[in-house]
Backbone:
């Protein structure tokens, strides 16, 4: 299943694959080497100055049969191949890290060095697991940098970590209460009564 935070990168990777197919490019190219189009060694033709968005590229590639089938994404195991591995891991891991930070912070009134160490280890392990799921994982050093960046921001900038655990719990309770009220409006007693009425009507017909 594609995580909601990686869907844009998966889409971009599919469009990139379509572009590769449109010019019969090297299937093994990982995007790590590029050529400067302004270099005099290359005969470059600037056809347009229009910047295409992904939907425009997708429409053109799909119309000419170059877009990969959905099965391509499964065979690539969600790997954006140099296009967004760093960003995809960072975005997915940071959202998970906020939840983990909240869980750890509720231990004490104020964060302790042990809390910070536990958070760092948890984020490092999670980033490593996300990275290992790629066909071509990032080097361990890059994955470690991502983990350190997320840990550093949470422990030095995030109110979730800096404020007292009492305030953190109060904020969490407020959010959960608001979600509960919203859910109650959508599927509370009124909808329950409606379901019971429909069920009773069906029983009467029987």
Residues:
């Amino acid at each position: 299943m594609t995580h909601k935070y990686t869907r844009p990168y998966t889409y971009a990777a599919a469009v990139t694959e379509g572009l590769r197919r449109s010019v019969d490019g090297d299937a093994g190219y990982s995007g790590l080497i590029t050529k400067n189009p302004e270099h005099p060694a290359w005969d470059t033709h600037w056809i347009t100055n229009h910047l295409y968005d992904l939907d425009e590229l997708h429409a053109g590639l799909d119309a000419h049969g170059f877009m990969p089938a959905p099965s391509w994404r499964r065979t690539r195991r969600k790997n954006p191949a140099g296009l967004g591995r760093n960003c995809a891991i960072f975005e997915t891991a940071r959202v998970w890290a906020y939840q983990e930070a909240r869980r750890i912070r509720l231990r004490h009134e104020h964060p302790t060095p042990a809390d910070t160490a536990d958070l760092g280890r948890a984020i490092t392990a999670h980033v490593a697991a996300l990275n290992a799921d790629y066909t071509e994982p990032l080097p361990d050093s890059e994955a470690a940098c991502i983990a350190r960046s997320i840990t550093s921001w949470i422990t030095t900038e995030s109110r979730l970590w800096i404020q007292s655990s009492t305030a953190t719990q109060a904020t969490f309770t407020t959010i959960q209460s608001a979600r509960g009220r919203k859910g109650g409006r959508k599927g509370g007693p009124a909808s329950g009564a409606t379901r019971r009425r429909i069920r009773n009507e069906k029983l009467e017909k029987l």
Notes: Residues 5 and 91 are 7 Å apart (CA to CA). Confidence is low (pLDDT under 50) at residues 1-6, 77-82. Residues 85-166 form one domain. The chain has nine helices and no strands.
